[in-house]
Amino acid sequence: MVLSFIFGIVASFAAWFLVAVALRPHLSWQPQLRRFSTDAEKIWYYAYLRNRTPWKAIDVSMIGRLRVRGLYAGHPNRWAVFDLSLSAYSVPLLPGTLKSKRQNASRLKILWTGGARQGVQVLMEALPDRLCKHFPQGQPIDLDALLSLGERAELYFVAFCTDGFSGSRAAFESRHYTKADLERTGN
Predict the structure, then answer these.
(1) 106 CB contacts (<8 Å, ≥6 apart)?
(2) Cβ–Cβ under 8 Å, residues 124 and 141
(3) Whose CA is closest to 66, among 112, 134, 136, 127?
(4) H or E segment at 9?
(5) Could you report the per-residue pLDDT of 11-53, keeping only the tens digit for each?
(6) Overall pTM surpassing 0.90 (yes/no)
(7) Pick the CATH number of 25-186 from 3.40.50.10490, 2.60.40.1400, 2.40.50.140, 3.40.50.2000
């Protein structure tokens, strides 16, 4: 009787460990944000989220947040946090590394556009009103400008996903990117 009780506890722990730890999703973020400009009119910003498991991640959803310190007068150490709209905020499936023949198949690109003409409206509509008031009307707002706000500005992402094999769900937070983490490519 005691032996079966101990076996039941050990088997329950092994099943929990397998589902909650070993078979949970494993996503990773790239170390830098990419800034790609095709010409003076169009600028793209993107971050990669990669599925590191051999099986697919399903029901992937993401949020982006901008943290700015030093925006409040009289409270220089207080952080203001703003939710940002993402172009790929919800994806039904992110392939795993096992079945994908291409290296980039298990990566997800999150985009913003910015620039002199087209991108201003796109980014202005995506920003909260209380953040837009820190920029002159009609001025191009891009990620460089957002990460230059206040004493220190940080951008980070949180991705939530369900493992396609075990059904366990997990959250993955990126590092807090600063202006120094923008990698420039293109023109």
Answers:
(1) 50, 51, 52, 94, 95, 96, 97, 100
(2) yes
(3) 127
(4) helix 2-17
(5) 999 988 887 777 788 888 888 888 777 665 667 777 788 888 8
(6) no
(7) 2.60.40.1400
Give me the sign of the Cα torsion angle 21, 24, 29, 31: positive
Q: Residue 110: helix, strand or coil by DSSP?
A: strand
Please state whether beta strands 107-114 and 43-51 pair in parallel, antiparallel, or not at all (unpaired).
Answer: antiparallel
**What are the backbone dihedrals phi and psi of residue 101, each rounded to the nearest 5 degrees, phi first?**
-80, -30
Give the pairing of strands 57-69 and 79-84: antiparallel
- Report the alpha-carbon distance of residue 87 to residue 110 in Å, rounded: 6
Domain ranges of the chain: 25-186
- How far apart are the C-alpha atoms of 170 and 92, rounded to whole Å? 15
Q: Is 43 in contact with 115 (CB distance < 8 Å)? A: yes
